[in-house]
Amino acid sequence: MLTKGVLVVTRVLGGNKFINLSYFRKMSQCAATAKRALVFLAPGAEEMEFVVAADVLRRGGINVIIAGLPDGSLVKCSRDVNIQPDISVAEAKSKAMAASKEVGELLKEQEKAGRVIAAICAAPTALKAHGVAVGKNVTSYPAMKPEMEEGGKYNYQECNVVVDGNIITSRGPGTAFDFALKIVDKIVGKEKASEVAKAMLLSY
Ligand SMILES: [Zn+2]
Fold first, then answer.
1. Is residue 157 in a domain?
2. Is the distance from CB of 85 to CB of 24 less than 8 angstroms?
3. 204 by DSSP, 3-state: which?
4. Residue 108 is part of which domain span?
5. Is the residue at 142 inside a domain?
6. Could you report the per-residue pLDDT of 23-47, keeping only the tens digit for each?
7. 3-state DSSP percent of the chain in helix, strand and coil, to 5
8. Mean pLDDT (whole number) for 103-119
9. I want to staple 176 with a disulfide (CB 3.0 to 4.6 A). Which of 38, 52, 71, 126 is the partner?
10. Ligand 1 mean position to 152 CA, how many Å?
């Protein structure tokens, strides 16, 4: 069962942050100017990866919505830090991203629409479980390499961050900043990513 990792699904749309998922999906079909990302948070996620991703994206001016699995209640992370999601992945029956029908549907919609999908650590296995990003260059936490390579669906690379079209994957806590900055770069632009990095005493 997959419980670790952070999945970021991004869309370009506007509106209020505190909305339910069906409204979020409906809004994604509207033309709007604001940048928005849906970040999935499942029990056992690594808080460093999750918080860095959400924080850096918000610094980058992206409207982040945190979607909890299996509902909107407090999510206990891998080192016992509890995080309160903004909304629930309401219809999800499973705690695991890889087994969540709702996560799968959102990922497939996202891919079909040509929008950005980002996954770090064990979360890339959720892409595989839902048949998303097939044929792409990807990476993951090293322990998940055999699982990602099995079946020959992906071209696995041992890089901190791998970008292939609209698919961004990364490896673990130590690569979380690179991962998040790459998402800001992809969605907002390199200039913004550099500006955000500089303010955090990082270089990009
Ligand atoms: Zn991790």
1. no
2. no
3. coil
4. 6-134+173-199
5. no
6. 455 444 443 457 888 888 888 888 8
7. 35, 20, 45
8. 89
9. 52
10. 23
Please report, for residues 19, 71, 87, 194, the alpha-carbon distance to residue 67 in angstroms, rounded to integers and kept in the order given. Answer: 10, 8, 5, 27
CA of 14 to the centre of ligand 1 (A): 30
pLDDT digit string, tens, across residues 52-94:
999 999 999 998 888 888 778 899 998 999 999 988 775 334 3
Q: What is the pLDDT of residue 36?
A: 83
Residue 122 alpha carbon to ligand 1 centre in Å: 6
Reported confidence tier of residue 185, pLDDT bands at 50, 70, 90? very high
Q: Spot the catalytic one: 30, 77, 121, 159.
A: 121
How many angstroms separate the CA atoms of 33 and 49, rounded?
Answer: 27
Task: Give domain status of residue 147, yes or no.
Answer: no
Between the CA of residue 134 and those of 11, 33, 57, 108, what are the distances in Å? 20, 30, 26, 11
How many domains does the structure of the chain reveal?
1
Return the structure tokens found at 124: 């890339």
Nearest to 187 by CA among 23, 9, 16: 9
pLDDT score of 93: 40
Q: Does the active-site annotation cover 159?
A: no
| CATH code, domain carrying 97 | 3.40.50.880
pTM here is 0.81
123 CA to centre of ligand 1 in angstroms? 8
User: Does 144 reside within a domain?
Assistant: no
